[in-house]
Amino acid sequence: MKTNAFTLPFTIFIAFITILIVTGSASIFKTQIQYEKMIQNYYLASTKLNLALIQTKESSLLSGDFTINYGDADVTCQATDSSLAAFNCKITLQNGYTLTKTTNP
């Protein structure tokens, strides 16, 4: 078999393209995982906030300002007005994620 000057550059080119594809795929996967974690944290915090508000309402502890520890989350709420119709709440999960949300009990 004859050797030519085309085989080595072509092999290097194919290797380079393969490396680019693998690196790009890994980067996309890493970004996707980060977005999924953010979404999971948001919904977990929202759920814990809703459950903490239900527990507070049922135990008749609903007041202008309250702090409750629900599971592994710390929930701090302040009423936006005197009628206790809406609350500005800050929830901090055990993993450090913090969500600030205005909600109705």
TrEMBL record:
Membrane-spanning intervals of the chain: 6-29
Entry protein name:
Competence protein ComG
UniProt keyword Transmembrane helix, yes or no: yes
Origin: domain of life: Bacteria
Where is the organism placed in the taxonomic lineage, from the top?
Bacteria, Bacillati, Bacillota, Bacilli, Bacillales
- Entry keyword set: Membrane, Transmembrane, Transmembrane helix
